[in-house]
Structures are given as C-alpha cells and as structure tokens.
Write a structure and sequence with these properties.
187 residues, 7-stranded mixed beta sheet, 4-stranded antiparallel beta sheet, globular, binds 2-acetamido-2-deoxy-beta-D-glucopyranose, signal
Length: 187
Amino acid sequence: MRPRWTFAPLVAMAQATAANIPPPLNITALSSRNGYSVLECWQLASIPADYMSAVNYAVGNTTLATWSRIEPRTHVGEAWAPHVQLTAVLNGLVRITAPAPPGNVPNASLCARNSLAGAGRPETKVAYAMPGTVQSSVLIAADLKSASTVAGHFTEFPSDEPTILVQVPFLDNKAPAHIVLHDGPCL
Ligand SMILES: *[C@@H]1O[C@H](CO)[C@@H](O)[C@H](O)[C@H]1NC(C)=O
Ligand SMILES: *[C@@H]1O[C@H](CO)[C@@H](O)[C@H](O)[C@H]1NC(C)=O
Ligand SMILES: *[C@@H]1O[C@H](CO)[C@@H](O)[C@H](O)[C@H]1NC(C)=O
C-alpha cells in the first residue's frame, strides 16, 4: 500500500516550480509596419530552461555570427537590417531612431517623399542600446529593406569609445516567435 504522505511533497514541489518560472524575455526590436521601420518591445515565446547553472532561453536557429567594431562618434544615417538578426552590444552606445526622420532620406523617390509627410507615418521613437541589462544591451533587427520601403531606421554610435557588437543572423531571416508588448523600446 502506498503511504498517504507521498502526495503532499509532490504537490508542494509542483507549486514551487510554477512560482519559480523566470519571466519571459523582452527584447527591443526593429520591425516594419506599412513600409516604415518601427521600434517595438517584443516578448519572446521561448520558455526558459534550467541547465548549465543558468536560466536559458532558446532564441532561434542562427547562422554565421559577426563581431563588429564601430569607430567612436559614427553616424550611419538611414539603415535597414541587413538580415533578421540579434545584436548584442558589448561596449559603447547605439542610438536608434525609427522611422528615420524625413530629412535623412535625401534620395527617396517623389512618391516616398509624399508618404513620408503622410498620415500613415508611425510616431518616431528613439532607443539607446548599451552594455548592461537584457533590456539595454540586446536588440533584434528585423526591418529589412524589402519591407521598410518608405523609411528605414537611423543609427548613430555617439560614444567616445568604439562600439563593439556581436551580430547573429537568424536562419532564413526567421524572427523568433513573439508577441508585441508595446510600441517603442522595452523599458
Ligand atoms: C517582460 O515584460 C513582462 C510584461 O511587462 C514582465 O511581466 C516581465 O517581468 C518582463 N520580463 C523581464 C525578464 O523583465
Ligand atoms: C531550429 O531547427 C530545428 C532543426 O531543424 C527545428 O526542429 C526547430 O524547430 C528550429 N527552431 C526554430 C525556432 O525555428
Ligand atoms: C538616387 O536616385 C537616383 C534617381 O532616381 C537613382 O538613379 C540613384 O540610383 C539613387 N541612388 C541611390 C544611392 O539610391
């Protein structure tokens, strides 16, 4: 016969596990909406797993990672995600404005210029990325030029030190499963 008390510890353990599940990962992302690059706060669907003495979130299948060094006070101008990719900031500072302000699109077609001033333009938001927390140091760039046809984003590296990035493209430009928490960067 099974002793009655074996059930109690099992229930207690299940409750403790549910209470200890770490929160989902929120990552600032550059996405495309109606032809404009926009900043959004994404909550990844990834369920964290405990191993290697760490809480681990699968982020997605990726391809060749690149380590990049950007000179101090570099102003890139209008830009688009070269691939759908994860970017981690190891040093320095990145300032991102999305959609790119109209003045930064000198070569846009007449049609694009008209829609830049148009009612469909999303509100311009600014995000800063720098070493520190997940929220501050990791970005997902998913605003491909093929989707942000009216305006991309605008990137600056204003710090006095070089900005060091690790850029990890997702396989087949497939962004990780997510929901959008709100417009603008994660806070
Ligand atoms: C992500 O955002 C949700 C909703 O605001 C919050 O409950 C959760 O704690 C956040 N996750 C982290 C890791 O901060
Ligand atoms: C990653 O690739 C594996 C193997 O092909 C696949 O089973 C898995 O679903 C992929 N994960 C994502 C998030 O696409
Ligand atoms: C700028 O616009 C001109 C005229 O439409 C075009 O020929 C040229 O390729 C464009 N340059 C760039 C860098 O897009």
